[in-house]
Task: inverse folding
């Protein structure tokens, strides 16, 4: 009896901000490993999501939304997007069901064309439109690029996820798995928990305030009673932003911390003792040293 051959490959998920790349990543894995919000530029780093199915292993790379950078952090995020499609077996261009090809999509398609990477047009959020309207979306994109396939999905509702995996299996080369069985991400637990806290900042705060925040975990250790002690420092760019984050009598910071702790406990499967502080680092998004210190650095 012959042993089934294993397959493994890397697939980049790219698109403009807010098209649902992180929601799709979580839907593919079946667990929340990428933070999600309705604000643009939520994802700042490339996140590997690992899916094992039968003899096949898919390694998806969730990337920042391609946008016009206005800070050095923005420059870094744009570079992450372009680096992520350098050595992949296939790419998913995720778009909304709107029959208009924007500049970010054109730039990404040109990048994929130059690299000769098989690209699949994935039309997300199909639960928000009538199916007949998808024809004009498909026509708008396919006249500009010869996509290998077109796949309508709803990452939020889970529609089309298994069909997408079926399709992508054909792009995986034969070879050993890239990650151990059971592993779902390359992110350390500490980093995932820091991102969870940043997600709650995006959820609870308005306007520019949450975009100017970064989170650093200064302590992440398990006690003898199996409770994980987590000390987190939230950095913001202005003294006025610090007051907004803390809130009246500390109410906002308490709300953010409580929501974060609850999600951290779900992810870790353990009790979390979370303490949070807020500090000001003016214009840190234009300071390369601070950008690197907060974990945003090239591989």
Result:
């Amino acid at each position: 009896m012959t042993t089934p051959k294993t397959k493994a490959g890397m697939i980049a998920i790219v698109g403009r901000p807010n098209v649902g790349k992180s929601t799709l990543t979580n839907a593919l894995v079946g667990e929340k490993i990428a933070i999600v919000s309705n604000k643009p530029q939520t994802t700042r780093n490339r996140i590997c999501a690992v899916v094992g199915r039968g003899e096949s292993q898919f390694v998806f790379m969730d990337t920042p939304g391609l946008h016009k950078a206005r800070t050095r952090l923005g420059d870094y995020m744009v570079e992450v997007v372009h680096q992520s499609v350098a050595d992949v077996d296939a790419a998913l261009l995720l778009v909304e069901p709107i029959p208009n090809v924007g500049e970010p999509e054109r730039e990404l398609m040109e990048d994929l064309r130059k690299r000769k990477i098989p690209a699949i047009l994935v039309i997300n959020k199909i639960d928000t439109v009538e199916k007949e309207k998808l024809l004009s979306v498909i026509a708008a994109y396919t006249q500009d690029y010869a996509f290998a396939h077109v796949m309508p999905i709803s990452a939020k509702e889970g529609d089309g996820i298994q069909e997408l995996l079926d399709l992508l299996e054909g792009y995986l080369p034969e070879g050993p798995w890239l990650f151990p069985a059971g592993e779902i991400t390359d992110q350390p637990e500490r980093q995932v928990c820091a991102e969870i806290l940043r997600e709650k900042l995006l959820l609870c705060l308005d306007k520019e305030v949450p975009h100017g925040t970064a989170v650093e975990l200064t302590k992440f250790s398990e006690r003898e009673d199996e409770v994980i002690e987590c000390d987190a420092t939230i950095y913001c760019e202005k003294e006025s932003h610090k007051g907004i984050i803390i809130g009246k009598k500390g109410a906002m910071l308490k709300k953010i911390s409580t929501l974060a702790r609850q999600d951290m406990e779900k992810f870790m499967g353990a009790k979390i003792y979370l303490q949070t502080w807020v500090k000001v680092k003016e214009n840190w998004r234009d300071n390369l040293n601070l950008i690197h210190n907060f974990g945003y650095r090239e591989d």
